[in-house]
Please model this.
Amino acid sequence: MSPLTHTRPKLAPHHLIGLLIVAAAAHALTVWALPRVIMAEVLRVTRVEGSASADGVRRPPPADHTARRIVMPSPDLLYATCSLDIRDKPAQITANIDYPRYWSIALYADNSDNFMVRNDREHGTRALRWLIVSKDAQYPMPASRDVEIIEAPGTKVLLLMRVLLPEDSAGRAAAEAARDSLRSR
Model:
């Protein structure tokens, strides 16, 4: 008797091509489509929840153990969010953040890429005046020297502001005033 030998079945070329097509499609969905789907939902929720604010900025209460709108929000931070649609006109963002502790404002594109961040160390306490425009803008640009023009990679932008929330009541009031100074037009 001869010993049994096991041979591995060979993959037919058409099976290999099919496998490569499925792998490429899965990769494209994961890397390209999934971030856009997630950000579309974040922008939609932010726009709906922010609609109660006359200036377009959503200012939720401080996070606690029940807050999960943001993944693992920090109870040491106050948040403000704003969904910006800059397809037809630029967004004007202003803030007078005279606050001695940490704060930051980040801008996210519709594919979840962070394309701009400013914080207390970079900006200081001077007034913040931004004009956020789409890189493909077809609208006229206002001429102003005291406004920083920020070019977004697309037409949908999420603004996220974070302000360090101290434990003392005077510090909390200053943190809330810094956050409340944020305006979107």
